[in-house]
Write a structure and sequence with these properties.
By secondary structure, the chain is mostly helical. 46% of the residues lie in helices and 9% in strands. The strands form two sheets. It has a three-stranded antiparallel sheet, with helices on one face. It starts with 14 loop residues before the first helix and ends in a 32-residue tail after the last helix.
């Protein structure tokens, strides 16, 4: 999907771009528009030609000549991923400000290409170098944003969706399967029931029911199963350094997802 991009006035002053044909310069603008929010675009020549020049009768061989011109001046850098061709716009992060980048739809360029993208800007008059530190910061920011978006996408997958067990315990399928594997079905069922009753009676809320079970509930269930109680109240003795009473047997309000 094409996107709104910025073409600076200095574009027409750039010495490197002036060394290629007019058609190659126009093609470069088309590639800029067709790229994703990280400066990567599909590199199949037929796809590129049809999306940049949908109404022009241009032979693929002619279009490929313009692409080659842009490759020679390193305006675009080719790379392959799983047998498919892609192009990375070398100075994309310098000249395009994307406030809310979309999810990556194309693969990330190899490390050596990203590290080498801090060369002189194509849109800098007379080839004056851009601030390489600023360029690297923008590249790193884009990479961090990519990882954040990928992580968010993984968290929204069916395997990570929380399901309700009993009245007040939420676990993902993966978390539930891990508990079954670690502690067996009987103790897992008891732990879920124990935590459910505890939350209901005390009005407690936890950021992660899964880590709460791991942190203290499963141990409490096993202690109760072994009859480890003391005194007339029948309460389990407090752990050293733990809480003062059965109301809060261990510090468990973990902020772990």
């Amino acid at each position: 999907m094409a996107r709104l991009r910025t073409v600076k006035p200095e574009f027409f002053d750039d010495e490197k771009l002036s060394s290629v044909s007019r058609d190659a310069r126009l093609t470069f603008i088309g590639i800029l528009i067709q790229s994703d929010d990280y400066g990567v675009v599909k590199g199949h020549p037929v796809w590129m030609k049809n999306n940049i020049y949908p109404y022009d009768e241009i032979k693929v061989a002619e279009f490929q000549k313009w692409i080659t011109e842009l490759e020679v001046i390193k305006a675009i850098i080719p790379f392959t991923h799983n047998g498919e061709q892609f192009y990375f716009i070398r100075t994309f992060s310098v000249h395009q400000k994307v406030d809310n980048p979309s999810k990556w739809k194309n693969p990330e360029p190899p490390e050596d290409i990203l590290e080498g993208s801090g060369e002189a800007s194509l849109n800098t008059p007379r080839g004056l170098p851009e601030d390489s530190a600023q360029d690297k910061n923008r590249i790193e920011k884009n990479r961090i944003e990519k990882k954040r978006i990928e992580k968010k996408g993984k968290e929204n997958t069916p395997a990570c969706e929380k399901k309700l067990f009993l009245d007040d315990v939420r676990l993902s399928d993966k978390q539930h399967a891990t508990l079954l594997q670690k502690f067996g079905e009987a103790d897992t069922v008891k732990a879920i029931e124990y935590l459910n009753n505890y939350k209901q009676s005390k009005g407690k809320k936890y950021d992660s029911d899964y880590h709460t079970i791991l942190n203290w509930v499963i141990e409490r269930v096993r202690e109760n199963g072994n009859g480890r109680t003391t005194g007339s109240t029948g309460k389990t003795p407090a752990k050293t350094g733990g809480a003062k009473s059965d109301e809060q047997p261990y510090p468990v309000d973990l902020e772990i997802g």
